[in-house]
Amino acid sequence: MVIQYKHEPFTNFSEEENRRLFTESLRYVQSYLGNDYDLVINGERISTKDKIVSVNPANHDEIIGTVSKATVELAEKAMKSADETFQTWRKTDPEMRSDILFRSAAIVRRRKHEFSALLVKEAGKPWNEADADTAEAIDFMEYYGRQMLAVKDGVKVESRPIEHNRFRYIPLGVGVIISPWNFPFAIMAGMTAAAVVSGNTVLLKPASTTPVVAAKFIEVLEEAGLPAGVVNYIPGSGSEIGDYLVDHPRTRFISFTGSRDVGVRIYERAAKVHDGQIWLKRVIAEMGGKDTIIVDSDCDLELAARSIVSSAFGFSGQKCSACSRAVVLEDVYDEVLARVIEITKNLTVGNTADQSYFMGPVIDQAAYDKITSYIEIGKKEGKLVAGGKGDDMEGYFIEPTIFADVDENARLMKEEIFGPVVAFCKAKSFDHAIQIANNTDYGLTGAVLSNNRKHIECAQDDFHVGNLYFNRGCTGAIVGYHPFGGFNMSGTDSKAGGPDYLLLHMQAKTISEMF
Ligand code: NAD
Questions:
Q1: What are phi and psi of 237, to 5 degrees?
Q2: Is the pLDDT of residue 134 over 90?
Q3: What distance in Å separates the CA atoms of residue 426 and residue 330, rounded to the nearest whole number?
Q4: What angle do CA 387, 389, 395 make, to 5 degrees?
Q5: Structural domains present in the chain
């Protein structure tokens, strides 16, 4: 009997014992930094000459690991392995597939701080953010394992006296999993776990800045008893093997989380039917966001200010759900802005191996350049009232930055920056605030701070985002509690961590037998 799902609790780092254990894990991870990781194809470890070098974004001199880089030939080999393994994996008992996820979750739980410490090093996450990433990875495995048990027998349809009808879900085939670096454990593991527990085999291509945590996850799956060939680990260049696998006639589905540009490219390419292809590929694409917190005149202003700060600057604003726009009703605008500036000025930025820093680095040079260029744009479009400076000498550090009095149609209000930058915009009325919040191409998350019931109801109908929150921030969705995914250019609204997510990896079959 499987016990009821409950999300993994977060570690309380104000307790000294937890800090001691985490420090020990950081030391342990330090002892294996610089190791070399192979590709894993059909259970075989393959080393290539060409490597991806994973570097700590907080310290240019610290190499996290070197990882073999798949070529097109190796991607083809992985495809063959996944294609063959599908014939046996699709018939394995769904309960066994779920059990492998439960066991994997248990292994990760036992090594929880080690995984989180690795995320501190490889992604520059602060301790609490790394801990949440690992907890979410555990949650995905626990939740999808249970979801598989819930759907394994299909759904009841009507039968007649001499006719027995069944309706069940079968897996699709080989999936290509393409994951981002910002939740390098949770999203990578969640996308993989969902595909595999549904009976599919996969090629896993993690983001090139965070391939080591994915290599460690492969070890967990192996230890948990996942048969060879079900998950093939093939880090590599997005444009080289990414395009190749997306175009491949044996690819049955692509599960992607990442930027809008790459998501749209995959969606378009996947639509083309290639020689030898006998299906229409399915695409699950979760993309960017331009997420807004609306502050109503009647609300807890202190809560509003704190929600903006934590949603805008947690993990340096590098969350698809991060608050990058604060739309504040004009009568409380000055007060909220002043309080947000005050809290922000006390935030510290540095190498988060040291727990005392609130914010770590941004992920790499390209991110640093992009964010600092938006800060320059912001200086023309608004008033810089906090932060604004960066330093990429040792790591890619950027101060938490606030721009005030930004016009609702400014670039800063419309384009995803994906860094610690938030724009403040004044609204004349609540309707106006909703109008501003909806004025981007995206529709991922949003939050409203309000005590006005009418406004809350109105936002429920009209604030067009996949995840809408009231009287809290707009980040921090929890698996099984807040199924996550967005509207419009935020993607296909494939709600990760939700009750219908697994079905996106399956197809329904009707079976009717006459007696
Ligand atoms: P990215 O699009 O640059 O990369 C994502 C993945 O796509 C990586 O593995 C990359 O190697 C791969 N890739 C690149 N080019 C490819 C190609 N031509 N074909 C196939 N794969 C290719 O995104 P990122 O920088 O890793 O992540 C940040 C973005 O992800 C942000 O836009 C953020 O909003 C979004 N994101 C969305 C969600 C969500 O649930 N909606 C969650 C996390 C991140």
A1: -70, 130
A2: yes
A3: 5
A4: 120
A5: 19-287+493-514 (3.40.605.10), 291-478 (3.40.309.10)
243 lines ligand 1 (CB under 6 A): yes
Q: Does the pLDDT of residue 147 top 90, yes or no?
A: yes
d(CA 68, CA 53): 9
Q: Which helix (H) or strand (E) holds 99?
A: helix 94-110
Residue type, 349: V
Side-chain half-sphere exposure of 214, counting CA atoms within 13 A: 36
Cβ 63 vs Cβ 55: under 8 Å: yes
Beta strands 44-46 and 39-41 are: antiparallel
| Chain centroid offset of residue 396 CA | 21
What is the identity of the amino acid at 457? E
Residue 335: CA atoms inside 13 Å, Cβ hemisphere, count? 14
Enclosing H/E stretch for 253: strand 251-257
Per residue in 70-115, pLDDT (tens digit) is 999 999 999 999 999 999 999 999 999 999 999 999 999 999 999 9
| Rg value, the chain, Cα | 23
* Sign of the CA dihedral running 88, 91, 95, 101: positive
Distance, in Å, from the CA atom of 494 to the CA atom of 502, rounded to the nearest integer, reads: 10
Q: Does ligand 1 come within 6 angstroms of the Cβ of 104? A: no
Look up the ipTM and state it: 0.98
Nearest Cα to Cα of residue 117 among 33, 218, 180: 33
Catalytic annotation on 408? Answer: no
Condensed to tens digits (0 to 9), the pLDDT of residues 219-256 reads 999 999 999 999 999 999 998 999 999 999 999 999 99
* Partners of 403 in the β-ladder: 384, 423
Nearest to 484 by CA among 289, 214, 198: 289
Ligand 1 atom at shortest distance from the alpha carbon of 288: 34
237 lines ligand 1 (CB under 6 A): no
Give the integer Cα–Cα distance in Å for 206 and 183: 11
Spatial distance between the Cα atoms of 214 and 217, rounded to a whole number of angstroms: 5
Q: Would the CB of 291 count as within 6 Å of ligand 1? A: no
Q: How far is CA 503 from the centre of its chain?
A: 19
Q: Which of 145, 438, 202, 384 is nearest to 448 (CA)?
A: 438
Instruction: Tell me phi and psi for residue 449, to 5 degrees.
Output: -100, 115
- Contact in structure between 214 and 204 (CB atoms under 8 Å): yes
Best residue among 136, 262, 475, 484 to mutate for probing ligand 1's pocket (most ligand atoms within 8 Å of CB) is 262
Atom of ligand 1 nearest to the CA of 260: 32
| Cross-strand bridge partners of residue 327 | 294, 425
Is the Cβ–Cβ distance between 504 and 475 less than 8 Å?
A: no
pTM (global) more than 0.95:
yes
Q: What are phi and psi of 169, to 5 degrees?
A: -105, 135
286 is catalytic: yes
